[in-house]
Specification:
This protein is an alpha/beta fold and 274 residues long. It has helices at residues 25-33, 45-56, 64-76, 91-101, 125-137, 151-167, 193-203, 233-254; strands at residues 2-4, 81-85, 117-121, 144-147, 181-186, 204-213, 256-262, 265-271.
């Protein structure tokens, strides 16, 4: 089921700013989140092998329905520059590279539409090495790069770059992230998603999209931490969800947002409007 916030602007004047057809925002979200897809639900072979590795490492992947839907939405957005926040060992990266380049063992006869650049944020250096091998396997090293730094560091530098470019455009250094960014996909642990989404809103281009799994709604009375004590996992979950509510309020005021229920949770699609 697709749920679209009611405060959407009635009509787009520029096709969303990233080459999408001119249509109302409601129509745009319905198109992006629809079940229409030229791709099936079968997992790419490389991604399937990585999924098996994750199980052996006790790492929990996104459910199949999320991976399929994210791949399908990405195929409908003509992104100039795309970012994946939370590379892990490359499971979702493999789905996206398969979308844009095909199976290296059986490459497509014609080049597929792809972003000019794709940046994968994964601060764990050992995981970054694994992703780098995956990039080379898809022959995508000319336009895809893994950044082994935190998302907060990268977005803070990108925001500073934007200010510096406006003030002194002739001497500004290159942006840490290629601009403009039209698509940001967030695949992080639940308690990190709200803050990562807030940071993404600072660097996504006007008309660009953010895809993120909505945190689960907490249940029961978890209490509050005693003075000087760290919150327990249940309390952290409540704090994270409260922060997510702030994200929704911000989007209701200044941006556009839609939700689609999938197996294992809800995917939120946010479009920056200002």
């Amino acid at each position: 089921m697709v749920e679209i916030e009611d405060n959407l602007a009635p009509y787009m004047s520029d096709g969303g700013g990233i080459g999408l057809p001119q249509m109302s925002e409601r129509e745009m979200f319905e198109k992006l989140l629809s079940s229409e897809s030229e791709f099936g639900n079968e997992e790419p072979e490389i991604a399937a092998n990585i999924g098996q590795q994750m199980l052996h490492m006790n790492l929990a992947p996104l459910s199949r329905s999320f991976r399929v839907k994210i791949r399908d939405i990405a195929s409908k957005i003509p992104s100039r520059n795309a970012v994946l926040v939370g590379g892990g060992i490359g499971h979702l990266t493999a789905w996206l590279l398969d979308l844009w380049t095909g199976d290296p063992a059986n490459p497509p006869s014609e080049d597929r539409p792809r972003p000019d650049t794709f940046r994968i944020i994964e601060p764990a250096g050992k995981f970054g090495v694994i992703i780098d091998r995956l990039i080379r396997r898809h022959s995508a090293e000319q336009w895809t790069q893994v950044l082994t730094r935190t998302w907060q560091e990268i977005t803070a530098e990108t925001s500073s770059w934007s200010v510096a470019t406006t003030a002194l455009p002739t001497i500004a250094q290159p942006s840490p992230l290629p601009q403009p960014i039209d698509l940001i996909i967030i695949d992080l642990p639940e308690n990190q998603r709200p803050s990562a989404t807030i940071a993404a809103l600072d660097v996504i281009s006007k008309g660009g999209f953010i895809l993120v799994k909505e945190p689960e709604v907490p249940t029961g009375d978890v209490g509050v931490p005693e003075d000087g004590e760290e919150p327990n996992e249940a309390q952290k979950k409540v704090e994270s969800f409260n922060q997510w509510m702030q994200v929704i309020r911000e989007c209701n005021t200044n941006h556009s947002m839609a939700f689609i229920e999938l197996s294992g949770g809800t995917l939120a699609a946010i479009r920056r409007s200002t």
